[in-house]
Amino acid sequence: MIYRNLEECIIDLEKNGHLVRIHEEVDPYLEMAAIHIKVYESGGPALLFENVKGSKFRAVSNLFGTVERSKYIFRQTWDAVQDVMSLRNDPIKAIKNPFKYMGTGLAAWKALPLKSDSHPAALQEISISDLPLIQHWPEDGGAFITLPQVYTEDPDKPGIMNSNLGMYRIQLNGNEYEMNKEIGLHYQIHRGIGVHQDKAVKQGEPLKVSCFVGGPPAHTLSAVMPLPEGLSEITFAGLLSGRRFHYSYIDGFCISNDADFVITGEIYPGETKPEGPFGDHLGYYSLTHPFPVMKVHKVYAKPNAIWPFTVVGQPPQEDTAFGQLIHELTGDAIKQEIPGVKEVHAVDAAGVHPLLFAIGSERYTPYQQVKQPAELLTIANRILGTGQLSLAKYLFITAEENQPLSAHHEVDFLTYILERIDLHRDIHFYTQTTIDTLDYSGTGLNSGSKVVFAAFGDKKRELCTEVPNVLNELREVEHARLVMPGIVAIQGSKFINYTEAQQEMKDLSDAIQAKGPLPSCPMLILCDDSQFMSEAINNFLWATFTRSNPSHDIYGVNSYYENKHWACDNVIIDARIKPHQAPPLIPDPTVEKNIERLFVKGASLEGMRL
Predict the structure, then answer these.
(1) With a threshold of 0.85, does the pTM exceed it?
(2) Are 217 and 64 in contact (CB under 8 A)?
(3) In this structure, which of 4, 186, 193, 446 has its CB flanked by the most CB atoms within 10 Å?
């Protein structure tokens, strides 16, 4: 079905059992987010909040909560989009199979935006305070837009075909923002809007910004798509929706004629205000920092407009399904961009950006009997220099040999690496570099380090499948628990500072070394709670790789430097929470209790598992 607007999508989902209406009044302060999380975790439907306290507008969430529901929404255009994306990655396919790809020309025509000389007649002007001001977590700095489509044009080449449509955090109130006149615009590094603002600053002019909310679901997904060079988000929005992107201009600002809401305004050179804190997709609060402030020009809404939102927090959340959807649509794009790459998996359980698993090829010296990473190191450098992949801190990379391997099967993949890695040769650090803006494990905003674990060759060791006795015998080791083959979690005392941590790690590594070699356990994790760390692989992936900075938090048994290369017998990662890191997200127990009223008999969510 081709949706002209969000309402048509909601009606279709409800008719086919994919959406539930919530009739009761719900508070946008914490309650709506808490309800969303409960329903998402139970694999439940999309939610239409019909009675939002303090606003006349309805709100919808969990539209993309499952890949199956997302594919249902895009069922009529899915195959055509995959064909077009496939041709972008490999145009020769059209020559080899012309009849299969005949429809891509029509699909591409639908991708072209359509300008109207007039804007929708029913569009009404409102204020920021009229919107559903949804606050998700107790310590958030205010209400945020979590599914915006932020539109800007290239100041040097104005026009929709040189535009950027991105999903950047928008703070609506709180902090120092003047209500109805200012909002916060948070964008991270490697984002298209930054290029546009940089050009505007050089011209000494404000950058015009339009924030679209709602409209056909394809428009929302398009704002987060990592697209091939030359394919804009606006054209992809038309392609995925099966209908051209309709737009017009008011006061020099681009207006999406399909959106439910539009906020227009300008960001001026050098003007920032504190933005945040905000619960983010890593599972912590991103802290307060200066970001561009947007001077609100006008706010528009359609009659009966619907406000879409999502909730971000410790993965998995709804953005997990976003990621899976993007992976299926983009297909082999990464293979075309980086020669030799077979697969790259940004691990969602670790918050996406902190941890990458990759499979490459190893073709440099097939004639040599000794197998070791060579081409893999070249590929690793390409991966860590490509777009948002460059924000990663940890990259584990290998090349499959004599057995199928998937980077998406986390335990099997790590097992394969740990069985083959030479810890004296295969660990490579990058220090004093950039990491994700939301990652507070580093040395400052956007600042930290990276490490590559590159393993290739014959199997070198059998991995332990229980905690080695030698660890249980050490007084320096408490509550040792097996995480997975070859990885053991050790519970440590509270982290105080790096001076004390270095001494603690020296004592631990010396004690292990004194007992003799421990090849079956190549990786040890020092943590605050070894039971939590060992209960589920997702706990290990999240806590380890979001709470450590490779250059500062990786230690080793019998570690040494040889010609500036660091090596060890066993890796120790200090994954304890550090004082400078952002606090984790903790739900409000009172709110958790209050929302139970919606799940009891006779209520809108009756029968849904809490």
Answers:
(1) yes
(2) yes
(3) 193
SS3 (DSSP) at 299: strand
Residue ranges of the alpha helices (H) in 130-252? 192-203, 217-222, 233-241
Closest CA to 523 of 432, 449, 451: 451
- What distance in Å separates the CA atoms of residue 175 and residue 153, rounded to the nearest whole number? 28
Q: Is 102 exposed, middle or buried (0-12, 13-18, 19+ CB in 10 A)?
A: exposed
DSSP 493: P
CA distance 208 to 163: 11
Q: How far apart are CA 215 and CA 258, in angstroms?
A: 5
The one-letter amino acid code at 558 reads: N
- For the chain (610 residues), the mean pLDDT of every run of 10, in chain order, is 93 96 97 96 95 98 93 88 66 44 53 83 92 97 96 92 91 96 82 82 93 96 76 86 92 95 95 93 91 96 96 88 78 75 91 92 75 91 88 94 88 97 97 85 87 95 96 89 97 95 95 94 97 96 96 97 96 96 93 95 86
Rg for the chain, CA atoms, rounded = 25
Q: How far apart are CA 107 and CA 240, in angstroms?
A: 9
Neighbours of 286 (CB within 10 A): 26
**DSSP assignment, residue 559?**
-
Rounded CA-CA distance 221/468 in Å is 47
Token pair of 231, please? Answer: 């394919």
Asked if 164 contacts 233 with a C-beta cutoff of 8 angstroms, the reply is: yes
Closest CA to 277 of 119, 438, 110, 423: 438
d(CA 228, CA 22): 40
Over residues 511-568, the pLDDT tens digits come to 999 999 999 999 999 999 999 999 999 999 999 999 999 999 999 999 999 999 999 9
* Mean of pLDDT over the chain: 90
Q: Are 420 and 459 in contact (CB under 8 A)?
A: yes
Between CA 330 and CA 417 the distance in angstroms is: 27
Could you tell me if 260 and 226 are in contact, meaning their C-beta atoms sit under 8 angstroms apart?
no
Assign 3-state DSSP to the chain and report helix, strand, coil percentages, each to 5. Answer: 30, 25, 45
> Residues 193-219: pLDDT tens digits?
888 888 888 999 999 999 999 999 999
* Residues 194/174, Cβ–Cβ less than 8 Å: no
